[in-house]
Write a structure and sequence with these properties.
Oligomer: heterodimer
Helix content of chain B: 40-55%
Distance between the termini of chain B: 60 Å
Number of strands of chain B: 14
Order of helices and strands of chain B: HEHEEHEEHEHHHEHEHEEHEHEEHEH
Number of strands of chain A: 0
Shape of chain A: globular
Structural class of chain A: mainly alpha
């Protein structure tokens, strides 16, 4: 993965050249966390009965939700936006002319953004822990495994959106729409069982629903992994489907772009 | 570090690959193009999309090109804008998929084994955008050393050599955004040289260079990259002088077809032979227009010379027999011809002449 490392390194140097943006990105975490802390504590008594199957503290519940959501947002949008930029700059076509494998190029293109998002999520959760959120540490490895699977399922969505970028140069409202729907129906700020019944079935479409529920049970309640087996099975199936379809669409779109000669059009 | 050292790397890589080298490298094709075709869908207006949503229109860019380019050859692809030069190079670099026909580059098929082709090919695009302007020249090269899967040690050596070769070693740490156009062009060449490619595809590499730098660049290309390293270079250009002076052979593309192929001397001999200069005291005689109407002359340009007086430079539409017919007609019309001689065609005019001849031949073939 020398190619991916080189791309991540270049992306780091590029990002570091925008110093103010980088500082704002870290400071922005405080703007996310502090309101969450105060609002969550204010709503603790109200939300307690609803969150009982997944957590005890509402602040820890939303902190996990916000951290996971920021990660799946990156998984969904990183590749389409990186491709969009690379096509506009003319670098994508040049990269494809090197012996670097396509999967290594894609991994490299999203690598930096993903690492940065992971760091931000880790800082957010560490700050939440300092502010009093209780995590069950022995549940963390299981939670990380489920998180990886959840992120992978959104990488599949990102591949599909990247296919749209390769063919149409835009994802339209799909990326924002899918993420917004994931946020409201996937249980980022409230458990999915409080969603009105007429729309609850739709929540089952989003991998975040299963991933977030499983992560919270593991990390906030310390539940054994068998208790989240059903969520894991569904999540694995969705991930397999999403990654397979995303990969097929992506390769198909790249072939189309190579035929149509649009790889360097901006 | 110099380009010669980088060239040694290329030669060494070649030896490591155990590639069989012909004793006469000129007989070993490095690039074989067979009946290559490419067309692109044309962009349609919103009105056209609304009225005929399923209609498909395509613009043919490359039409049935057959060509062999030999190992260690500096091969020029010459053509006017829109002739299909860049499309041809991009297909050879596996960036575009052909519609029909095929090509082997370094013994690998561009459609069946594009990955193997990319191992031995590097392309120098005409577009400066392909660099990361927020990175230094050095970091740009480090990125591509990674994409070429070079080890850290190997990358350092080659980067230093490549930067030195293009004269950017002392500004390697400067941001590319602060480079001049010429420096960016040289950095793009350095990036291509990193891979020590067997085949180097160059798309108008001297476009942004000043005349002095362009000359030095062409000499470096000829002496170090082609002669010393034995790299096959395919150079697309619309600069006839560059192609005919520096390239071993030149293919002239016109409307996506191969209009002519040969050395500069051969092409000048073939397409420049029918240019004549006629010295006369009556260059505005109506018989010249009459000869154009009779299709014996295609172009007539009146000019005067301080020493030799007035003259007419014209292109005869045919061989020596047609030239003789022109002379006879002039004499019969009472034009006093003091000299009638074949003129040397400037290289810059040769491409236009080849294109015009190709159009005439195709028109005749259609008729």
């Amino acid at each position: 993965m020398r190619e991916a490392r080189a791309l991540v390194r270049a992306a780091w140097f590029t990002a570091a050249s925008y110093r103010v943006g980088m500082i704002m990105s870290v400071l922005g975490l405080a703007a996310v966390l502090l309101p969450l802390y105060f609002i969550a504590n204010a709503l603790q008594a109200t939300m307690q009965p609803a969150i009982t199957p997944e957590a005890r503290q509402y602040f820890a519940f939303v902190a996990i939700g916000a951290a996971v959501f920021s990660l799946i947002s990156t998984c969904t949008t990183a590749l389409p936006s990186a491709l969009d930029g690379a096509i506009a700059r003319g670098t994508f076509e040049v990269m494809l002319g090197t012996p670097a494998r396509l999967r290594a190029i894609c991994a490299g293109l999203i690598g930096y953004q993903l690492l940065w998002a992971l760091l931000r999520a880790a800082i957010l959760l560490a700050a939440a822990a300092l502010l009093g959120a209780n995590f069950v540490w022995h549940g963390v490895p299981g939670g990380v495994a489920v998180l990886t699977l959840t992120m992978l399922s959104y990488v599949g969505v990102g591949l599909f959106l990247s296919a749209l970028v390769l063919v149409f140069r835009t994802t339209g409202p799909l990326a924002a729409g899918f993420l917004t729907a994931s946020m409201f129906l996937g249980g980022v700020y409230y458990p999915t069982h409080v969603i009105p019944s007429w729309i609850r079935d739709l929540a089952g479409v989003f991998p975040l629903t299963y991933g977030l529920r499983a992560i919270r049970k593991l990390v906030l309640l310390g539940a054994p992994i068998v208790t989240v087996a059903r969520d894991l099975e569904t999540l694995t199936a969705i991930t397999a489907l999403s990654v397979s379809l995303g990969t097929i669409c992506f390769y198909g779109a790249l072939r189309y772009a190579r035929r149509a000669g649009t790889l360097s059009s901006y | 570090m110099s380009l010669v050292q980088l060239a040694d790397v290329a030669s060494r890589d070649r030896r490591n690959d155990h590639t069989p080298l012909s004793e006469d490298f000129r007989l070993t094709p490095s690039v074989r193009i067979r009946n290559l075709c490419k067309s692109f869908p044309t962009r349609r207006s919103i009105a056209q999309l609304a009225t005929r949503p399923f209609a498909r229109q395509r613009m043919t860019v490359i039409q049935g090109i057959n060509l062999d380019i030999y190992e260690g050859e500096l091969f020029g692809i010459l053509g006017l804008n829109g002739a299909g030069k860049t499309t041809l190079l991009k297909m050879l670099a596996t960036l575009l998929i052909p519609d029909g026909g095929g090509a082997d580059v370094g013994g690998h098929d561009i459609c069946d084994d594009p990955q193997a082709v990319r191992e031995g090919v590097a392309m120098v695009p005409a577009d400066e955008r392909s660099l990361n302007w927020r990175l230094s020249g050095l970091e740009n090269l480090r990125l591509f050393a990674g994409l070429h899967r070079l080890s850290r040690k190997e990358a350092s050596t080659r980067i230093a050599s490549a930067l030195a070769a293009v004269g950017l070693l002392d500004v390697g740490n400067k941001l590319v955004g602060a480079y001049s156009s010429g420096m960016r062009q040289r950095l793009i060449l350095a990036r291509a040289l990193l891979a020590a490619p067997r085949v180097l595809l160059m798309d108008e590499p001297t476009r942004s260079l000043d005349p002095v730098t362009a000359h030095a660049f062409r000499r470096m290309l000829r002496d170090d990259i082609v002669n010393h390293a034995g790299t096959t270079v395919v150079l697309a250009t619309h600069n006839a002088e560059e192609a005919f002076t520096y390239c071993d052979r030149v293919a002239v593309l016109h409307h996506g077809r191969l209009a002519a192929l040969g050395t500069g001397v051969e092409l000048a001999e073939r397409f420049g032979r029918n240019r004549y200069r006629i010295w006369t005291s009556t260059p505005h005689h109506s018989v010249f227009d009459e000869l154009v109407r009779r299709n014996l002359l295609t172009t007539v340009v009146r000019r005067s010379d301080a020493d030799d007086g007035e003259g007419v430079e014209c292109i005869v539409a045919g061989n020596e027999e047609v030239a003789a017919e022109v002379l006879r007609s002039l004499v019969e019309a009472g034009v006093s011809v003091t000299r009638f001689e074949r003129a040397t065609m400037p290289l810059s005019s040769l491409i236009a002449q080849i294109a015009a001849t190709h159009d005439l031949e195709r028109g005749a073939a259609h008729a």
